[in-house]
User: Which sequence fits this backbone?
């Protein structure tokens, strides 16, 4: 079960408007994309045996590598960028721009892989730029920084 993230007391150290990015996700995704594309291209060009002389087979092998590299490139683009006016969440498939007033709360429970935002339209939005895979301390600090931005720049929920 997700739990609400309370903003830290006092001022945040560092740049509160720094983008939220996974620590290792970007480097791993880009490295894997290059390795897979290079590997598929190498296999397509040097493979020998029945059926390997076909241009279609070579193109298909390189195409599979390019498709995998495209997916990994999108995975490497995961982030959340903040300005005083809005929060932009770049996930694997969808990019969503939110006014701060649209974000009601930040959730990040012990078993959650990434932060979730509760939105004013009743929906939840994952923020894959803050991932538990980056380590408990770092991910919880980043979730708290986002919660502080929501509290400072958004409208406080009534209740």
Assistant:
């Amino acid at each position: 079960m997700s739990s609400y993230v309370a903003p830290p007391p006092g001022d945040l150290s560092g740049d509160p408007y720094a983008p939220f990015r996974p620590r290792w996700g970007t480097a791993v995704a880009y490295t894997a994309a290059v390795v897979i594309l290079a590997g598929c291209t190498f296999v397509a060009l040097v493979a020998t045996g029945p059926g390997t002389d076909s241009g279609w087979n070579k193109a298909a092998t390189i195409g599979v590598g390019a498709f995998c590299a495209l997916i990994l490139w999108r995975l490497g683009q995961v982030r959340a960028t903040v300005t005083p006016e809005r929060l932009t969440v770049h996930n694997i498939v969808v990019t969503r721009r939110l006014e701060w007033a649209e974000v009601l709360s930040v959730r990040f429970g012990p078993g959650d892989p990434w932060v979730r935002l509760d939105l004013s339209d009743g929906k939840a939005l994952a923020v894959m730029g803050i991932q538990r895979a980056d380590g408990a301390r770092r991910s919880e600090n980043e979730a708290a920084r986002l919660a502080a931005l929501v509290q400072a720049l958004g409208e406080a929920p009534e209740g």
